[in-house]
Structure formats: C-alpha cells, structure tokens
Specification:
Layout: E1 7-8, E2 11-12, E3 22-27, H1 43-56, E4 65-70, E5 81-85, E6 89-92, H2 96-108
Helix pairs in contact: 1-2
Length: about 120
C-alpha cells in the first residue's frame, strides 16, 4: 500500500499518532500447581465487564480504547492485574465497581484511579 494510503474510518493514517488512544491489557493467565495467578481471581469476568462498559460508553474502536487479553504480565502477587497504555498505569481491583471506575475515570476521561494502582514493587 502506498505511503499515506492507509485509512482509519475515513481518516488518513498519521504515523505520529497511535491507532488507539489507550489500550488496557488484562492478565488472564492460569498457572499450574496452585501458583498465584489472575485467572483464579476472576480476571475473565473483569475483562468481559470492561469490554462491555467501554463499548456502552461509545469509547471502543479506532482513536479510542481497545480492551485486550494478555498472557502473564508477571505481577502475579498483585493479581488480578491490568495495565493501561500509553500511560503504563498498572491496576488491581476487587469488584465490578472498581472496573467501572477504571473505565469511567481513566479509559474514558483520562484520569487514572489512584486508589486502584498496583504498587510498583509488586512483582511475581
């Protein structure tokens, strides 16, 4: 395809901009042998909730938000975990209200939810 010919929903492709404004990646990894993992903490339900909420807010798609599945993000001790890019904000949550707050505040309005941020020292 010729340079400049790629288009997104009728808009010319701009290589200086990301295709999505934000990505959120949910760890859905399941470890064997009883090891801590996000899959055992109902991360799939949080992913499903987030995806539905982003869509219902009209924030899904090119130029907006993409909700993605991820394998292990290697921060199992803080699970369940998700990370939002390009800001590189790591989250953990307890329930659906927390997911709703991440969607409404960060993914839609651009304001990270400080109380749900995963501390930087938490790893595997």
């Amino acid at each position: 395809m010729a340079a400049g010919a790629a288009r997104s929903r009728g808009r010319p492709y701009n290589s200086a901009m990301s295709y999505y404004e934000r990505h959120i990646f949910f760890c859905l990894n399941e470890r064997q042998g009883g090891e801590a993992c996000c899959a055992r903490q109902d991360a799939q339900a949080a992913f499903d909730r987030c995806k539905a909420r982003v869509k219902s807010a009209g924030a899904a798609g090119a130029g907006h938000v993409r909700v993605n599945r991820a394998g292990c993000l290697d921060r199992c001790a803080g699970g369940p975990v998700a990370v939002v890019y390009p800001e590189a904000v790591w989250y953990t949550w307890v329930d659906e209200r927390d997911i709703d707050e991440i969607v409404d505040s960060h993914l839609v309005a651009g304001v990270p939810v400080e109380r749900l941020r995963l501390p930087p020292e938490v790893g595997r």
